[in-house]
Each structure stands twice: as C-alpha cells, then as structure tokens.
Write a structure and sequence with these properties.
The chain is an alpha+beta fold. The chain is built from 18 helices and 14 strands. The longest helix is centred in the first third of the chain and has 54 residues, at 78-131.
Length: 628
C-alpha cells in the first residue's frame, strides 16, 4: 500500500461515520449502515475496508428482503444448536472486542500519528524557508502550525525570528539608501547597528568598510582644503595625495587642479632655497605636475631645470667638470638664483677647477678662458681672480698680425667631396670604456648625458613613462654565455632599462669642432632587450620598442621635433631581427653648426617584464674628403 493509500485508510477508519456504520451493521440496521458506508465511499473511494463493509451491508439487506419459505419440520438437535450458539457468541464477542480496540485505540493512534507528521512537516518546511530567507512562506507555515498547536514554542520562536529579520532588512534597505545618496554618516550608524545585532549579515561588513573609507576620504579632503586655505601648502599637498591614493576618482578635477598647483608651488619653494638635499624631491614634484599637464610649458621647464641641475651636481661630485659646466650653465642662464644660489656657486667652482685641470695639463690658454668665465658670474670671484692673476704672466703674447696684400677672390671650391666614410671616430668615450659619473637613476659614462621622461605620457605609450635605470655593465661580471652577445668592443657597455612600465630615454653627446656643411655618419649599436618572461625571454614583436637617432645644434630642447633632425622610428614592423640582439643603426646628416648635439633615443611603450637597451661601439665618422 502506498503512503497516500495508507493515509486514506487511516482517515476512513478514524472517521466517526465509519464507527457509526459498523454499529448499524452489527445491529442489523442494514439501510442505516448502507447510508453511512456510501457517504464514506464517496470521500474514501480507494478504502478497501469501506468497500467491503458497504458490500456486506447490501448483501445482508438483500437477504432480509428476499421471499420467506416455510420449511419442513425437522427434529431439533438441541445439543448441537447450543454448542453452535455458544461458538457464535464467543466469536462475536471476540469480534466486538477487536472492533472496539480498533475504534477506540488503533484508529485514534493512527490519527494522532498522522497529525504529528503534519506538524513535523510544517515545522521543517517553516525552518527551511526561514533559513533561505523566504520570510512570507516561512511565516505562513509557522501560522498553520500554531493553528494546530496553539502556543507551539518553536512556531512562536520562528515568528519572532521573522519579525527580527524583517526589522534587520528594513534597517539594511534604509542604510543602503543612505549610502547611495551619499549620506555616509547615517549609513555608518545603521550598518554598525546591524552588525551589532547580527554579525556577518549579508554584505554589511563590506559596505561598512566602504562607507568608513569614504568618510575618511571626506575628512582628509576637508583637512586638505583647510590647509590649502590657510597657506599650509606642504601639509595640503600631503593630504590631497592621501585622498588621491585612496580614491583616484574622488573630486578628481578639483584635486588635479590643486595637486598641479601645489606640486609646482612646493617644488619652486624647494629650488628657491639653498637646500640641495631636497632637489630630488622637487624633481619628483615637477615630474608629477608634468604628468597632470603634459603640455604645460612651465612644468616642462621646471622639470628640465631640475634634471639639469641634478646631473650637473652629479658630474661635479665625480669631478667631470666639463659635463658639470654644460648642465649647470643651462640652469644658471635660465635662473640665476636656482637653489638659493648653490647652482651658480657650483658652476663657478666647476669653471675654476676645470681651469686648474687645463693648467696642470699645460694648456694655459684654455685655463685662462675658464677663469675668465668664472669671473663673469655674480659670485665672490676671489679664487678665480687669484688663479687668473697668477697665470697672466705665463701666457704667450698674441703676435701682431702682419698685413697681407689684398687678393682678388676666386671662385670658392666645394669644401668637401665624395661620401667616403673616414676612419676617424669623433665621439668621446664611444664604447663607454672610460670613467662614469653617478646620477640618481644610476651611472652615466663620461662625455655622455642621459635624458628621460618620468611620470609623463608620450606618443604611443600605454601609461606614463617612468625614469629608467642606467648602468655601466662590465664584462667580468656578466655570465660567460652572455659576454660575447652583450659586448661588442672592450669590456664595458651602457644599459638603459625599466621593468614593468613604459620608458622613454635618450643617450646624448655634445660634439664640437665639426666642419659646417660637411656630412657625418652617426653609428649606434643597440641591443633591444625588451621581452615578455614566459620561462625565458620572449620577444614582444611589433611596435613594443623603438629606436631613432637625431642631430641638432647645441641648445635645442630635447624632443623638439622642429629643432632636432630625426630619423624615422625603427621597430619590429620595419626592421627585421629587431629584438634580443644587436642592430646597427646609422644616420647621415649635415653639420649646420660646428657644435652639435647627437641623440640616440629609445622607447618602450608597454609595461613589459623589461624594456631594456644595451649600447656599445658608438661612432661618428666624417664623410667625404676636403676639396683641394
């Protein structure tokens, strides 16, 4: 029998009409029994006991309704009848007792069992729905359970939990509404109240953290604005940076404006005072200002002056006087009181020390010229005057020129002819075998300069370029298997590199004494060490890295496309075997002035595992021969 069938049977036998029908049947009241069992049959159509009882009542009713036949007289065997009657009475008593047990004990027990199962089912469903957060359905089940068992403790407990959960949900929805409308103070209060009552409720912890973070940002921003209005610019800058670090989009336009102003203001305050140890901080501020406004000429100027001053100080510390003079002169020419006068004082001493160096080498005329330049600067000139006074008697007088007869000028021959490459290499320290000087990004070979962008976007870059590192690599410190690959001439090379960020840099040399109108060939051997690391170096291909050469009269601004004559950019799209090996790049140009600046520019436009460039065996060759 199925579970539903059993429940139906238990239901019929527990029905009062069933007991009533059985009583009519036992009393011989067939019509009444039939009426009771027919009613039960309609309600319990599959109940076999009801069906059999109905059939029995109908059968006995038919017997009673049949014709009466008068029988013959028989001899009555009273003994047998008495025994049979006793047996019937005994069996009837047993049947009555069984029926009574069934009706009074078994059927009520079955009914109670079924009711208990229904109550258990309601409680189980209600608790499951409550746990799933289906409050309406859970409440319906608990209410039904209370109808069957008034005061049921678990049902009352469940309804109380539902009420608490509805209250929590109302608080949560209200807190979310406050958060979305920007009322973070009220949202914080409600989220805290919810967590106090129900730790771990929904995403309240995450939302509270977000709200508290926003409140912290608002407080920092308010402090920054107050410091800015009070003229406490260093404090304001620090606070605005804290806001930006926490949320880059918060009041972005206003904070960008404030940061640019403060980077420039605080940076200028640094370079206006005699605080050399703060120069790198000022340089960082100017680089950040330039990253916010790449087209700002004032930020570009401050950034370049700070770079030049830093490089000049580095060269001065390494006693590379010529480089120190070249870099510091550009600073002093633009701003005489840079770093509270430290820059001009350092330039003055560089001229004096270079003069002493020339004097020690026996070149008195060049020494004299350095002392004279030093004395032109608005500083205490006592040391330069002392050196010049001591040197003056030793100078060779300039002979008076003998007048020459005037000649009729003939046609001016072409000064140079042909394109033959001369063996002369006019570069200083072309293979980087000499000494070097230190700057804050690393080492720079003597006779050269390194320029770079820091925190500035450039054409094609996927993010602002960052300052690279520069190293003089030594063959003896390089793994043997790489020595023949990375070194072309001698035992040193120059490496310029930056990992996980774009970079743009130039290796630069100023050359003097070129023949105006003559053509020259600049040769740069560059190993493009740009790669993606996948268990080994994998070349990125395409435009991931670039190289180009340029030449310009000295004094041109770096990256000025109108002042500098550049080659095209070479990369993996127009140059085969561009990556992970040396390539020779050449540029033929005409000297428009005797003093020119040469550029080898390198760029990595993606944040690869490495954007690196090795340089070695550089050259500048004159082309052609002088005309007779």
């Amino acid at each position: 029998m199925t579970v539903s069938g059993f429940a139906e049977q238990a239901g019929a036998e527990g029905d009062p009409r069933y007991r009533e029908g059985m009583a009519h049947l036992q009393a011989g009241e067939w019509e009444e029994a039939i009426e009771s069992f027919q009613a039960l049959r309609q309600e319990y159509p599959s109940d076999q006991e009801v069906a059999e009882a109905l059939e029995e009542a109908r059968f006995k009713a038919d017997l009673d309704a049949g014709p009466q036949v008068k029988g013959r007289r028989w001899a009555i065997r009273w003994r047998s009848l008495i025994v049979g009657a006793l047996v019937i009475l005994v069996l009837g008593g047993i049947g009555f007792a069984v029926t009574r047990v069934i009706t009074q004990q078994v059927l009520p027990m079955l009914a109670e069992t079924r009711a208990e199962q229904e109550r258990a089912q309601l409680l189980s469903e209600a608790q499951a729905l409550l746990e799933a957060g289906e409050l309406d359905a859970a409440q319906s089940r608990f209410a039904a359970l209370l109808e069957r068992v008034p005061g049921h403790p678990k049902a009352l407990e469940g309804l109380e939990q539902i009420a608490d959960m509805r209250l929590l949900d109302d608080l949560y929805q209200q807190a979310v509404a406050f958060q979305e409308e920007g009322n973070y103070v009220e949202a914080q209060k409600l989220y805290s109240e919810i967590l106090q009552d129900e730790p771990g409720y929904r995403d309240v912890s995450e939302r509270l953290e977000d709200v508290e973070g926003r409140l912290e940002i608002e407080d920092l921003f308010a402090q920054a604005e107050a410091a800015y209005e009070a003229g406490e610019y260093q404090e304001a800058l620090s606070l605005y940076q804290s806001v930006r670090d926490r949320n880059v989009s918060y009041e972005r336009e206003l904070i960008d404006e404030r940061l640019f102003e403060l980077y420039m203001r605080v940076g200028r305050q640094i370079v206006a005072a005699p605080q050399e140890d703060q120069l790198q901080r000022a340089l960082s501020y100017f680089a950040r200002a330039l990253s916010l406004r790449p087209a700002s000429p004032e930020a570009a100027l401050e950034h370049q002056l700070a770079i030049s001053c830093s490089e000049g100080f580095g060269a001065f510390s390494n006693e590379v006087w010529g480089t120190a003079i070249a870099r510091l002169q550009t600073v002093v020419d633009e701003r005489l009181d840079y770093l509270g006068g430290i820059a001009v004082q350092r330039l003055y001493l560089a001229y004096v020390y270079l003069g002493e160096q020339y004097e020690a080498a026996g070149n008195r005329q060049l020494a004299w010229e350095q002392y004279q330049r030093a004395m032109e600067l608005p500083v205490d000139r006592a040391l330069a005057e002392e050196r010049a006074t001591a040197l003056a008697p030793l100078l060779t007088p300039t002979p008076t020129p003998t007048p020459q007869p005037t000649r009729t000028p003939g046609p001016t021959p072409a000064p140079f002819r042909g394109n033959a490459v001369q063996d002369d290499n006019l570069l200083t320290n072309p293979s980087f075998e000499g000494e070097w000087y230190d700057i804050y990004t690393g080492q720079v070979p003597e006779g050269w300069r390194v320029l770079w962008l820091d925190g500035v976007d450039f054409p094609g870059s996927t993010a602002p370029g960052l300052a690279p590192e520069t190293i003089i690599g030594r063959k003896q410190r390089t793994p043997p298997e790489e020595q023949d690959i990375l070194f072309l001439d001698g035992s040193q090379h120059l490496k310029v590199f930056k990992g996980f960020a774009p970079m743009y840099a130039a290796v630069v040399q100023d050359v003097n004494g070129l023949d105006v109108g003559r053509r020259y060939r600049l040769v740069a051997n560059v190993f493009v060490d740009a790669y993606i690391w996948e268990g080994g170096k994998v070349e990125p291909g395409g435009e991931a890295a670039r190289v180009r050469l340029g030449a310009a009269p000295q004094g041109a601004a770096w990256r000025d496309e109108e002042a500098i004559n550049y080659t095209e950019w070479w990369d993996g799209t127009n140059r085969s075997n561009f990556f992970l090996q040396y390539s020779e790049f050449t540029y033929d140009f005409e000297a428009t002035q005797s003093d020119m600046t040469l550029y080898v520019e390198m760029a990595g436009i993606f944040g690869l595992n490495n954007n690196g460039f090795f340089l070695d065996d550089m050259a500048l060759h004159p082309l052609g021969t002088a005309s007779e």
